[in-house]
Amino acid sequence: MTAPTTSAAAATAAPWRRPDARTLLVRCGWLAAPLGPVALTALATGGRISSRGWLTLAFVAAAFAAVTVAGTVRWSRTHYRLTADSLILRSGVFSKQLRTIPLHRLRSIDLTATPLHRLLGLTVVRAGTLTSHGGRGEIVLNAVSRSEAVRLRTALLAHSATTPGAGERVLARIDWRWLRYAPLTFWVIGGVGVAAGTVYRVLDAMGVGLWRVGFVQRAFTEFGSSMLWLTVPAALLAVVAIGSLGALAMYAENWWALRTEWTDDRTLSVRRGLLTTRSVAIERGRLRGVVLREPLLLRAVGGAGVHAVAGGLGDREETRRLSTLLPPAPRAQALRVAAGALRAPRPPFEGTEFTPHPRVALQRRTMRGLLLLVLPVTAALVTLGALLSSPVLLHCAWVFATVATPVVWLLARDAYRSLGHAVRGRHLLVRSGTFTRDTLVLERDAIAAWTFTSSPFARRAGLVTVTAAVAAGEHGYRIPDLAARTAPVFAATAAPGILEEFLRDS
What we know:
This protein has 506 residues and is an alpha+beta fold.
Protein backbone atom coordinates (compact mmCIF):
# COMPACT_ATOMS: atom_id res chain seq x y z
CA MET A 1 0.00 0.00 0.00
CA THR A 2 1.42 3.39 -1.03
CA ALA A 3 1.59 6.07 1.67
CA PRO A 4 0.06 9.49 0.90
CA THR A 5 2.48 12.04 -0.47
CA THR A 6 3.36 14.67 2.13
CA SER A 7 3.77 18.37 1.43
CA ALA A 8 7.53 18.08 1.93
CA ALA A 9 7.76 15.27 -0.59
CA ALA A 10 5.68 17.25 -3.05
CA ALA A 11 7.93 20.27 -2.59
CA THR A 12 11.00 18.12 -3.18
CA ALA A 13 9.49 16.71 -6.37
CA ALA A 14 8.58 20.14 -7.79
CA PRO A 15 11.48 21.47 -9.92
CA TRP A 16 13.02 24.88 -9.33
CA ARG A 17 12.66 27.24 -12.29
CA ARG A 18 14.25 30.55 -13.23
CA PRO A 19 12.58 33.58 -14.81
CA ASP A 20 13.10 33.69 -18.56
CA ALA A 21 16.58 34.81 -19.60
CA ARG A 22 15.03 37.39 -21.94
CA THR A 23 14.18 39.33 -18.78
CA LEU A 24 17.70 40.78 -19.03
CA LEU A 25 16.71 42.48 -22.30
CA VAL A 26 13.62 43.99 -20.67
CA ARG A 27 15.84 45.64 -18.07
CA CYS A 28 17.56 47.56 -20.87
CA GLY A 29 14.40 49.59 -21.42
CA TRP A 30 15.70 52.29 -19.07
CA LEU A 31 18.20 53.27 -21.76
CA ALA A 32 15.45 55.08 -23.69
CA ALA A 33 15.25 57.94 -21.18
CA PRO A 34 18.92 59.08 -21.27
CA LEU A 35 19.63 58.16 -24.89
CA GLY A 36 16.46 59.71 -26.34
CA PRO A 37 17.38 63.37 -25.71
CA VAL A 38 20.95 62.76 -26.95
CA ALA A 39 19.66 61.19 -30.17
CA LEU A 40 17.18 64.02 -30.78
CA THR A 41 19.87 66.62 -30.13
CA ALA A 42 22.25 64.90 -32.58
CA LEU A 43 19.47 64.73 -35.16
CA ALA A 44 18.66 68.42 -34.75
CA THR A 45 22.33 69.50 -35.00
CA GLY A 46 23.27 67.32 -37.97
CA GLY A 47 25.16 64.71 -35.99
CA ARG A 48 27.18 67.03 -33.77
CA ILE A 49 27.22 65.96 -30.13
CA SER A 50 28.16 68.45 -27.44
CA SER A 51 30.54 67.74 -24.59
CA ARG A 52 27.47 67.37 -22.38
CA GLY A 53 26.17 64.70 -24.77
CA TRP A 54 29.45 62.77 -24.71
CA LEU A 55 29.44 62.92 -20.93
CA THR A 56 25.91 61.52 -20.92
CA LEU A 57 26.93 58.69 -23.27
CA ALA A 58 29.91 57.80 -21.06
CA PHE A 59 27.69 57.73 -17.99
CA VAL A 60 25.11 55.58 -19.80
CA ALA A 61 27.80 53.11 -20.95
CA ALA A 62 29.16 52.71 -17.41
CA ALA A 63 25.65 52.40 -15.95
CA PHE A 64 24.68 49.88 -18.63
CA ALA A 65 27.66 47.67 -17.77
CA ALA A 66 26.91 47.84 -14.04
CA VAL A 67 23.17 47.19 -14.48
CA THR A 68 23.81 44.28 -16.85
CA VAL A 69 26.22 42.58 -14.45
CA ALA A 70 23.93 43.14 -11.48
CA GLY A 71 20.88 41.95 -13.43
CA THR A 72 22.65 38.79 -14.59
CA VAL A 73 23.75 37.92 -11.05
CA ARG A 74 20.27 38.63 -9.66
CA TRP A 75 18.63 36.55 -12.41
CA SER A 76 20.96 33.61 -11.77
CA ARG A 77 20.07 33.71 -8.06
CA THR A 78 16.28 33.86 -8.57
CA HIS A 79 14.30 30.63 -8.56
CA TYR A 80 10.66 29.73 -8.08
CA ARG A 81 8.57 26.60 -7.91
CA LEU A 82 4.94 25.63 -7.57
CA THR A 83 4.19 22.77 -5.18
CA ALA A 84 0.93 21.07 -4.31
CA ASP A 85 0.12 23.66 -1.65
CA SER A 86 2.29 26.75 -2.16
CA LEU A 87 4.16 29.06 -4.53
CA ILE A 88 7.78 29.62 -3.44
CA LEU A 89 10.21 32.33 -4.58
CA ARG A 90 13.90 32.21 -3.66
CA SER A 91 15.98 35.30 -4.47
CA GLY A 92 18.79 37.55 -3.28
CA VAL A 93 22.56 37.69 -3.62
CA PHE A 94 24.00 39.03 -0.37
CA SER A 95 20.72 38.89 1.56
CA LYS A 96 18.84 35.76 0.57
CA GLN A 97 15.04 35.71 0.74
CA LEU A 98 12.61 32.81 0.69
CA ARG A 99 8.99 33.86 0.17
CA THR A 100 6.05 31.47 0.24
CA ILE A 101 2.38 31.97 -0.56
CA PRO A 102 0.07 29.15 0.58
CA LEU A 103 -2.31 28.49 -2.29
CA HIS A 104 -5.37 28.43 -0.04
CA ARG A 105 -4.64 32.08 0.88
CA LEU A 106 -4.31 33.22 -2.74
CA ARG A 107 -6.40 36.34 -3.44
CA SER A 108 -5.59 37.52 -6.96
CA ILE A 109 -3.48 36.74 -10.01
CA ASP A 110 -2.36 39.53 -12.32
CA LEU A 111 -0.68 38.97 -15.70
CA THR A 112 0.85 42.11 -17.24
CA ALA A 113 2.84 42.60 -20.43
CA THR A 114 4.22 45.97 -21.55
CA PRO A 115 4.99 46.52 -25.26
CA LEU A 116 8.61 45.45 -24.64
CA HIS A 117 7.46 42.33 -22.78
CA ARG A 118 5.10 41.48 -25.63
CA LEU A 119 7.85 42.00 -28.22
CA LEU A 120 10.01 39.48 -26.34
CA GLY A 121 7.15 37.06 -25.65
CA LEU A 122 7.22 37.61 -21.87
CA THR A 123 4.67 38.24 -19.13
CA VAL A 124 4.94 39.52 -15.55
CA VAL A 125 3.04 37.34 -13.05
CA ARG A 126 1.84 38.77 -9.71
CA ALA A 127 0.28 36.43 -7.16
CA GLY A 128 -1.21 38.33 -4.22
CA THR A 129 -2.52 37.28 -0.82
CA LEU A 130 -3.43 38.74 2.56
CA THR A 131 -1.04 38.08 5.42
CA SER A 132 -2.12 36.94 8.86
CA HIS A 133 -1.93 40.51 10.24
CA GLY A 134 -4.10 41.98 7.46
CA GLY A 135 -1.35 43.26 5.18
CA ARG A 136 -0.70 42.19 1.62
CA GLY A 137 1.85 39.66 0.49
CA GLU A 138 2.88 39.36 -3.12
CA ILE A 139 5.19 37.27 -5.25
CA VAL A 140 6.24 38.89 -8.53
CA LEU A 141 7.83 36.86 -11.31
CA ASN A 142 9.39 39.35 -13.70
CA ALA A 143 9.27 37.83 -16.21
CA VAL A 144 8.33 34.41 -17.61
CA SER A 145 7.30 33.20 -21.03
CA ARG A 146 3.67 33.51 -22.09
CA SER A 147 3.12 29.76 -21.98
CA GLU A 148 4.65 29.56 -18.49
CA ALA A 149 2.46 32.43 -17.30
CA VAL A 150 -0.65 30.66 -18.56
CA ARG A 151 0.48 27.41 -16.91
CA LEU A 152 1.03 29.16 -13.59
CA ARG A 153 -2.30 30.96 -13.69
CA THR A 154 -4.16 27.76 -14.51
CA ALA A 155 -2.38 25.83 -11.75
CA LEU A 156 -2.89 28.59 -9.17
CA LEU A 157 -6.58 29.06 -9.96
CA ALA A 158 -7.12 25.30 -9.74
CA HIS A 159 -6.41 25.51 -6.01
CA SER A 160 -9.03 28.21 -5.32
CA ALA A 161 -11.53 26.68 -2.94
CA THR A 162 -14.79 28.49 -3.65
CA THR A 163 -18.34 27.39 -4.10
CA PRO A 164 -19.48 27.33 -7.70
CA GLY A 165 -22.66 29.12 -8.66
CA ALA A 166 -24.95 29.72 -11.54
CA GLY A 167 -25.27 32.83 -13.66
CA GLU A 168 -24.03 34.55 -16.77
CA ARG A 169 -20.38 33.77 -17.49
CA VAL A 170 -19.36 36.60 -19.86
CA LEU A 171 -20.32 39.88 -18.22
CA ALA A 172 -18.87 42.38 -20.73
CA ARG A 173 -17.01 42.67 -24.01
CA ILE A 174 -15.69 45.91 -25.45
CA ASP A 175 -18.16 47.81 -27.60
CA TRP A 176 -16.49 50.60 -29.54
CA ARG A 177 -19.63 52.70 -29.37
CA TRP A 178 -18.58 53.30 -25.75
CA LEU A 179 -15.79 55.54 -27.06
CA ARG A 180 -18.27 58.41 -26.91
CA TYR A 181 -17.93 58.32 -23.12
CA ALA A 182 -14.12 58.70 -23.17
CA PRO A 183 -14.03 62.53 -23.45
CA LEU A 184 -16.22 62.83 -20.33
CA THR A 185 -13.30 62.09 -18.03
CA PHE A 186 -10.47 63.91 -16.26
CA TRP A 187 -8.05 63.38 -19.14
CA VAL A 188 -9.81 65.88 -21.39
CA ILE A 189 -8.17 68.72 -19.43
CA GLY A 190 -5.71 67.04 -17.06
CA GLY A 191 -4.16 64.92 -19.79
CA VAL A 192 -3.19 67.99 -21.80
CA GLY A 193 -1.45 69.44 -18.75
CA VAL A 194 0.44 66.20 -18.10
CA ALA A 195 1.53 65.95 -21.75
CA ALA A 196 2.62 69.59 -21.87
CA GLY A 197 4.65 69.17 -18.68
CA THR A 198 6.34 66.05 -20.05
CA VAL A 199 7.29 67.78 -23.32
CA TYR A 200 8.65 70.76 -21.41
CA ARG A 201 10.83 68.54 -19.18
CA VAL A 202 12.21 66.62 -22.19
CA LEU A 203 13.05 69.83 -24.07
CA ASP A 204 14.62 71.31 -20.95
CA ALA A 205 16.79 68.20 -20.52
CA MET A 206 17.93 68.67 -24.14
CA GLY A 207 18.92 72.25 -23.37
CA VAL A 208 16.08 73.75 -25.43
CA GLY A 209 14.60 76.83 -23.71
CA LEU A 210 10.98 76.77 -24.86
CA TRP A 211 10.32 80.36 -23.78
CA ARG A 212 13.26 81.62 -25.86
CA VAL A 213 11.88 80.24 -29.15
CA GLY A 214 10.70 83.07 -31.39
CA PHE A 215 7.29 81.79 -32.45
CA VAL A 216 6.44 80.85 -28.83
CA GLN A 217 7.24 84.40 -27.68
CA ARG A 218 5.18 85.89 -30.53
CA ALA A 219 2.25 83.59 -29.76
CA PHE A 220 2.20 84.60 -26.10
CA THR A 221 2.55 88.29 -26.98
CA GLU A 222 -0.39 88.13 -29.36
CA PHE A 223 -2.41 86.00 -26.96
CA GLY A 224 -1.94 88.37 -24.06
CA SER A 225 -2.33 91.73 -25.78
CA SER A 226 -5.06 91.49 -28.41
CA MET A 227 -8.47 89.97 -29.02
CA LEU A 228 -8.75 88.14 -25.69
CA TRP A 229 -12.45 87.61 -26.36
CA LEU A 230 -11.42 85.43 -29.31
CA THR A 231 -8.08 83.91 -28.29
CA VAL A 232 -9.19 82.68 -24.84
CA PRO A 233 -12.19 80.66 -26.15
CA ALA A 234 -10.05 79.42 -29.04
CA ALA A 235 -7.36 78.22 -26.60
CA LEU A 236 -9.98 76.48 -24.46
CA LEU A 237 -11.47 74.78 -27.52
CA ALA A 238 -8.00 73.66 -28.60
CA VAL A 239 -7.29 72.19 -25.15
CA VAL A 240 -10.64 70.36 -25.15
CA ALA A 241 -10.08 69.05 -28.68
CA ILE A 242 -6.55 67.81 -27.95
CA GLY A 243 -7.68 66.36 -24.61
CA SER A 244 -10.59 64.56 -26.24
CA LEU A 245 -8.30 62.95 -28.81
CA GLY A 246 -5.94 61.89 -26.01
CA ALA A 247 -8.83 60.48 -23.97
CA LEU A 248 -10.03 58.46 -26.97
CA ALA A 249 -6.52 57.07 -27.52
CA MET A 250 -6.11 56.15 -23.84
CA TYR A 251 -9.55 54.51 -23.74
CA ALA A 252 -8.72 52.42 -26.80
CA GLU A 253 -5.29 51.41 -25.46
CA ASN A 254 -6.52 50.54 -21.96
CA TRP A 255 -9.70 48.65 -22.90
CA TRP A 256 -8.78 47.02 -26.19
CA ALA A 257 -10.20 43.47 -26.36
CA LEU A 258 -11.88 43.88 -22.95
CA ARG A 259 -13.46 40.70 -21.68
CA THR A 260 -14.92 40.45 -18.16
CA GLU A 261 -16.09 36.94 -17.34
CA TRP A 262 -16.43 34.20 -14.78
CA THR A 263 -14.05 31.30 -15.40
CA ASP A 264 -14.97 27.90 -13.97
CA ASP A 265 -17.69 29.61 -11.85
CA ARG A 266 -15.15 30.60 -9.22
CA THR A 267 -12.82 33.24 -10.64
CA LEU A 268 -13.74 36.64 -12.05
CA SER A 269 -11.29 37.52 -14.81
CA VAL A 270 -10.71 40.84 -16.59
CA ARG A 271 -8.52 40.84 -19.71
CA ARG A 272 -7.71 44.04 -21.60
CA GLY A 273 -5.05 46.18 -23.27
CA LEU A 274 -3.57 46.95 -26.68
CA LEU A 275 0.08 47.91 -26.14
CA THR A 276 0.27 46.86 -22.49
CA THR A 277 -1.92 43.81 -21.92
CA ARG A 278 -3.29 42.95 -18.49
CA SER A 279 -5.19 40.01 -17.10
CA VAL A 280 -6.50 40.21 -13.52
CA ALA A 281 -8.12 37.20 -11.85
CA ILE A 282 -10.13 37.66 -8.62
CA GLU A 283 -11.13 34.66 -6.56
CA ARG A 284 -14.86 34.61 -5.97
CA GLY A 285 -14.52 34.16 -2.22
CA ARG A 286 -12.52 37.44 -2.04
CA LEU A 287 -15.03 39.53 -4.00
CA ARG A 288 -16.90 41.42 -1.28
CA GLY A 289 -18.95 43.87 -3.34
CA VAL A 290 -19.00 46.35 -6.21
CA VAL A 291 -19.01 50.12 -6.71
CA LEU A 292 -21.09 51.81 -9.41
CA ARG A 293 -19.10 54.94 -10.29
CA GLU A 294 -20.85 57.85 -12.04
CA PRO A 295 -18.78 61.02 -12.60
CA LEU A 296 -20.84 64.18 -13.08
CA LEU A 297 -20.47 64.56 -16.86
CA LEU A 298 -20.77 60.81 -17.42
CA ARG A 299 -23.91 60.70 -15.28
CA ALA A 300 -25.43 63.51 -17.33
CA VAL A 301 -25.35 61.37 -20.48
CA GLY A 302 -26.41 58.11 -18.80
CA GLY A 303 -23.00 56.48 -18.37
CA ALA A 304 -21.27 54.67 -15.50
CA GLY A 305 -18.36 52.37 -14.64
CA VAL A 306 -18.09 49.38 -12.32
CA HIS A 307 -15.31 48.55 -9.84
CA ALA A 308 -14.85 45.45 -7.70
CA VAL A 309 -14.43 45.50 -3.93
CA ALA A 310 -11.96 42.63 -3.58
CA GLY A 311 -9.15 41.58 -1.29
CA GLY A 312 -5.54 41.08 -2.30
CA LEU A 313 -5.29 43.74 -5.02
CA GLY A 314 -2.79 45.92 -3.13
CA ASP A 315 -2.83 49.43 -1.71
CA ARG A 316 -5.41 52.07 -2.60
CA GLU A 317 -3.66 53.15 -5.81
CA GLU A 318 -3.20 49.58 -7.05
CA THR A 319 -6.78 48.73 -6.12
CA ARG A 320 -8.14 51.61 -8.19
CA ARG A 321 -6.03 50.49 -11.13
CA LEU A 322 -6.80 46.77 -10.94
CA SER A 323 -10.39 46.69 -9.71
CA THR A 324 -12.15 48.04 -12.81
CA LEU A 325 -14.65 45.56 -14.19
CA LEU A 326 -16.18 47.94 -16.73
CA PRO A 327 -14.86 51.27 -18.09
CA PRO A 328 -17.23 54.19 -18.79
CA ALA A 329 -20.16 52.61 -20.63
CA PRO A 330 -23.97 52.88 -20.79
CA ARG A 331 -25.52 52.69 -17.32
CA ALA A 332 -27.70 49.74 -18.33
CA GLN A 333 -24.57 47.76 -19.23
CA ALA A 334 -22.96 48.82 -15.93
CA LEU A 335 -25.99 47.52 -14.02
CA ARG A 336 -25.73 44.16 -15.81
CA VAL A 337 -22.03 43.86 -14.97
CA ALA A 338 -22.64 44.80 -11.33
CA ALA A 339 -25.40 42.20 -11.03
CA GLY A 340 -23.25 39.57 -12.75
CA ALA A 341 -20.32 40.23 -10.45
CA LEU A 342 -22.61 39.83 -7.43
CA ARG A 343 -24.19 36.69 -8.96
CA ALA A 344 -27.61 38.29 -8.59
CA PRO A 345 -30.52 38.74 -11.04
CA ARG A 346 -30.19 42.52 -10.55
CA PRO A 347 -28.00 44.81 -8.42
CA PRO A 348 -29.38 45.33 -4.89
CA PHE A 349 -29.48 49.14 -5.20
CA GLU A 350 -32.04 48.95 -8.01
CA GLY A 351 -35.46 49.47 -6.46
CA THR A 352 -34.02 50.09 -2.97
CA GLU A 353 -35.24 53.10 -0.99
CA PHE A 354 -32.16 54.83 0.42
CA THR A 355 -32.46 56.45 3.83
CA PRO A 356 -31.90 60.22 3.43
CA HIS A 357 -29.44 62.10 5.63
CA PRO A 358 -30.31 65.07 7.88
CA ARG A 359 -31.22 68.31 6.10
CA VAL A 360 -28.34 70.11 7.81
CA ALA A 361 -25.99 68.14 5.52
CA LEU A 362 -27.29 70.27 2.63
CA GLN A 363 -26.47 73.46 4.52
CA ARG A 364 -22.95 72.20 5.23
CA ARG A 365 -22.31 71.50 1.54
CA THR A 366 -23.67 74.89 0.49
CA MET A 367 -21.57 76.79 3.04
CA ARG A 368 -18.49 74.74 2.16
CA GLY A 369 -18.79 75.73 -1.51
CA LEU A 370 -19.38 79.39 -0.72
CA LEU A 371 -16.52 79.65 1.79
CA LEU A 372 -13.95 77.58 -0.13
CA LEU A 373 -14.68 78.73 -3.68
CA VAL A 374 -16.91 81.74 -4.17
CA LEU A 375 -15.63 83.94 -1.34
CA PRO A 376 -11.84 83.44 -1.86
CA VAL A 377 -11.94 83.93 -5.63
CA THR A 378 -14.22 86.95 -5.39
CA ALA A 379 -12.05 88.51 -2.67
CA ALA A 380 -8.88 87.90 -4.71
CA LEU A 381 -10.39 89.56 -7.82
CA VAL A 382 -11.61 92.54 -5.80
CA THR A 383 -8.22 92.95 -4.09
CA LEU A 384 -6.29 92.76 -7.36
CA GLY A 385 -8.74 95.13 -9.03
CA ALA A 386 -8.30 97.67 -6.24
CA LEU A 387 -4.51 97.39 -6.14
CA LEU A 388 -4.11 97.57 -9.91
CA SER A 389 -6.92 100.09 -10.40
CA SER A 390 -8.45 97.71 -12.92
CA PRO A 391 -12.21 98.06 -13.54
CA VAL A 392 -12.08 94.85 -15.58
CA LEU A 393 -11.07 92.76 -12.54
CA LEU A 394 -13.74 94.43 -10.41
CA HIS A 395 -16.36 93.56 -13.01
CA CYS A 396 -14.98 90.00 -13.15
CA ALA A 397 -15.43 89.76 -9.37
CA TRP A 398 -19.16 90.50 -9.34
CA VAL A 399 -19.77 88.45 -12.49
CA PHE A 400 -17.97 85.46 -10.95
CA ALA A 401 -19.88 85.78 -7.66
CA THR A 402 -23.20 86.10 -9.50
CA VAL A 403 -22.56 83.03 -11.65
CA ALA A 404 -20.75 80.84 -9.11
CA THR A 405 -23.24 81.21 -6.25
CA PRO A 406 -26.18 79.46 -7.97
CA VAL A 407 -23.80 76.86 -9.44
CA VAL A 408 -22.51 76.04 -5.95
CA TRP A 409 -26.08 75.84 -4.67
CA LEU A 410 -27.09 73.43 -7.45
CA LEU A 411 -24.03 71.23 -6.87
CA ALA A 412 -24.70 71.19 -3.12
CA ARG A 413 -28.30 70.09 -3.72
CA ASP A 414 -27.09 67.36 -6.08
CA ALA A 415 -24.54 66.19 -3.51
CA TYR A 416 -27.23 66.10 -0.82
CA ARG A 417 -29.66 64.18 -3.03
CA SER A 418 -26.91 61.65 -3.68
CA LEU A 419 -26.47 60.97 0.04
CA GLY A 420 -28.13 57.80 1.24
CA HIS A 421 -27.66 54.43 2.90
CA ALA A 422 -29.61 51.22 3.33
CA VAL A 423 -29.36 47.63 4.51
CA ARG A 424 -30.78 45.05 2.12
CA GLY A 425 -30.38 41.37 2.82
CA ARG A 426 -26.70 40.53 3.23
CA HIS A 427 -25.54 43.85 1.72
CA LEU A 428 -24.84 47.34 3.00
CA LEU A 429 -25.63 50.04 0.43
CA VAL A 430 -24.02 53.49 0.50
CA ARG A 431 -24.37 56.33 -2.00
CA SER A 432 -22.56 59.69 -1.96
CA GLY A 433 -20.72 62.24 -4.10
CA THR A 434 -21.57 64.76 -6.81
CA PHE A 435 -18.49 65.23 -9.02
CA THR A 436 -18.14 61.46 -8.75
CA ARG A 437 -21.19 59.69 -7.34
CA ASP A 438 -20.38 56.24 -5.98
CA THR A 439 -22.97 53.63 -5.10
CA LEU A 440 -21.38 50.93 -2.94
CA VAL A 441 -22.77 47.43 -2.47
CA LEU A 442 -20.80 45.74 0.31
CA GLU A 443 -21.27 42.37 1.98
CA ARG A 444 -22.14 43.05 5.61
CA ASP A 445 -20.04 40.18 6.98
CA ALA A 446 -16.95 41.76 5.34
CA ILE A 447 -17.06 44.71 7.77
CA ALA A 448 -14.36 44.25 10.40
CA ALA A 449 -14.66 47.52 12.36
CA TRP A 450 -16.32 50.92 12.49
CA THR A 451 -14.70 54.36 12.84
CA PHE A 452 -16.72 57.42 13.90
CA THR A 453 -15.22 60.84 13.08
CA SER A 454 -16.62 64.33 13.52
CA SER A 455 -15.17 67.82 13.11
CA PRO A 456 -16.14 70.64 15.52
CA PHE A 457 -18.57 72.08 12.95
CA ALA A 458 -20.09 68.65 12.31
CA ARG A 459 -20.56 68.05 16.02
CA ARG A 460 -22.42 71.35 16.35
CA ALA A 461 -24.67 70.22 13.50
CA GLY A 462 -25.22 66.81 15.11
CA LEU A 463 -23.51 64.89 12.31
CA VAL A 464 -20.88 62.15 12.21
CA THR A 465 -19.01 60.36 9.42
CA VAL A 466 -18.91 56.58 9.80
CA THR A 467 -16.22 54.51 8.06
CA ALA A 468 -16.56 50.78 7.52
CA ALA A 469 -13.16 49.04 7.72
CA VAL A 470 -12.93 46.17 5.24
CA ALA A 471 -10.04 43.86 4.33
CA ALA A 472 -10.82 44.43 0.66
CA GLY A 473 -11.02 47.19 -1.91
CA GLU A 474 -9.89 50.56 -0.55
CA HIS A 475 -9.97 49.10 3.00
CA GLY A 476 -12.30 51.81 4.28
CA TYR A 477 -15.64 53.12 2.96
CA ARG A 478 -17.14 56.36 4.32
CA ILE A 479 -20.77 57.10 5.07
CA PRO A 480 -20.66 60.90 5.44
CA ASP A 481 -22.92 63.10 7.56
CA LEU A 482 -25.10 60.62 9.40
CA ALA A 483 -27.20 61.83 12.33
CA ALA A 484 -24.95 61.35 15.38
CA ARG A 485 -27.80 59.97 17.55
CA THR A 486 -28.80 57.23 15.08
CA ALA A 487 -25.38 56.34 13.59
CA PRO A 488 -24.35 53.77 16.26
CA VAL A 489 -27.66 51.93 15.96
CA PHE A 490 -27.38 51.85 12.19
CA ALA A 491 -23.79 50.54 12.37
CA ALA A 492 -24.81 47.84 14.87
CA THR A 493 -27.66 46.78 12.59
CA ALA A 494 -25.48 46.71 9.46
CA ALA A 495 -22.69 44.65 11.08
CA PRO A 496 -23.91 42.90 14.25
CA GLY A 497 -21.40 41.87 16.91
CA ILE A 498 -19.06 44.88 16.75
CA LEU A 499 -20.75 47.72 18.65
CA GLU A 500 -23.26 45.98 20.92
CA GLU A 501 -20.93 45.96 23.92
CA PHE A 502 -20.30 49.70 23.64
CA LEU A 503 -24.01 50.44 23.20
CA ARG A 504 -24.84 48.50 26.36
CA ASP A 505 -22.15 50.37 28.31
CA SER A 506 -23.50 53.71 27.16
